[in-house]
Write a structure and sequence with these properties.
Shape: elongated
Helix content: 25-40%
Number of domains: 1
Strand content: 15-25%
Distance between the termini: 21 Å
Structural class: alpha+beta
Order of helices and strands: HEEEEEEHH
Largest sheet: 4 strands, antiparallel
Number of strands: 6
């Protein structure tokens, strides 16, 4: 479960980097349109508001914030609903493995909430870099002048990269704990 959500975070950060590198191709709207929910790479959603649905077996079950669902279908039906399955839920919510047709708009709202939380988390990283065990981010705005030659590669770079990766992994773990404790309030 954690791997699936971490993959979604990485994919979204990569998408943000691509949009930053190519602002002329970026969407002008702040929120994701419903068509983005049909992207084959966007599968896992963290429930952001409570709702109840009728399962494929005919019963009703509810989901609450923090439950996790996965989109199974690739095309919405005529009512703009798409097949999903429950990956993780709290006691009393839909059972893991339950399947139902979720409104695409509900998935859009979940994804937009996910993006807001991701932006907030990245803001905390920037604000607190170099403090409380968070590594210092890379210097911004450093570019080689056209025609200049880069310096000889530093032989200690692999060791430094490994240390930075370890620091980043620790920071990611702390952020997850903070987000989890914040979402349970």
């Amino acid at each position: 479960m954690k791997y699936a959500i971490a993959s979604e975070v990485r994919a979204q950060i990569a998408a943000n980097q691509t949009m930053a590198a190519h602002p002329d191709q970026a969407e002008t709207a702040g929120d994701q349109p419903a068509t983005a929910m049909l992207d084959r790479t966007l599968r896992v959603f963290v429930v952001s508001s409570s709702f109840t649905e009728q399962t494929a077996s005919g019963g009703e079950c509810g989901l609450t914030p923090g439950d996790v669902i996965a989109r199974l279908g690739d095309s919405p039906d005529a009512e703009q609903r798409i097949l999903v399955t429950v990956l993780s839920s709290k006691r009393g919510d839909c059972a893991v493995g339950s399947q139902f047709q979720a409104p695409v708009q509900e998935l859009v709202e979940m994804h937009n909430d996910f993006l807001r939380q991701l932006d907030s988390g990245l803001g905390v990283l920037v604000q607190d870099e170099g403090q409380n065990g968070l590594p210092v981010g890379p210097a911004t705005g450093l570019h080689l002048a056209p025609g200049s030659q880069p310096e000889t590669p530093d032989a200690s770079a692999p060791t430094m990269l490994q240390q930075q990766q370890e620091s980043a992994d620790q920071a990611e773990s702390e952020i997850r704990k903070t987000v989890q404790s914040g979402s349970s309030d």
